[in-house]
Amino acid sequence: MGISKAHEDLLDSAENLSQNINLFRNGKASAYRIIATILCSLLINDKKNGAFLKRLFPKIKLHPVQENNMLNILKSIGVDEKHIKFLQDGTLSVRGNGDSELILFDFFAKPIELDSWLKQRVVYIESPISIEELLRSVRDKESSHLDPDYNDTLANTRSVSYGENGCHKEIIISIGEYILQILNGIINFKNLPDK
Asked: What range does the domain containing 19 cover?
C-alpha cells in the first residue's frame, strides 16, 4: 500500500524546505523566496483549503518568538513609539565573514496556537511586522506574483541588513529552519497523517 497524498506532500515539503535552506546557507540568497512560498503553503490559510499543517494537525501549537522587550521598556519610560525605528526579536549572531544567523523562537516557552503564532511580531521597523505579514509579502511581491513595487513591509525590511543579507531574508530562513525542525520531528516520530 502506498502513502497518502498528505503524507507525500509533508515529506516533499520537508525535503524542499531543507534543500532551499541549504542553498541559501551556501550562498544562493534568492532561495529565501522559495522558502517563503513553501512556508505560506504550510502555515497560512488559503481561501479554499486552509493551512496545510493545520488541516493535518488541527491542534498544532508552535513555540513563540523570543520577544525583544526593549519596545515596552522604552514606551514605559516615556519614549514615543514614533522615535523607535528598529528592534529585532530573537537572537542575532553576525560573524566577521558576513554570515549571520537569527534564532527567532523560544524553545523553553509554552507553544501557542498557529493563528496566534502567525500574528507575532518578528521585527519592528517603523512599526511591528508579523510572521504572516512578512511571509505573505515575500510570496506576493517577490515570489509568486513578482509585483512591480515593494509594499511597506518589504521596503522597511530591505532597508536593514545583517551581514550580506536584508533582515527579511534572515527572518524567513529562521522561520524555515524552525518549521523544518517541526516537520522532521513529525516525520521521525511517525506522526504522519493517513488523510
From this structure: 5-188
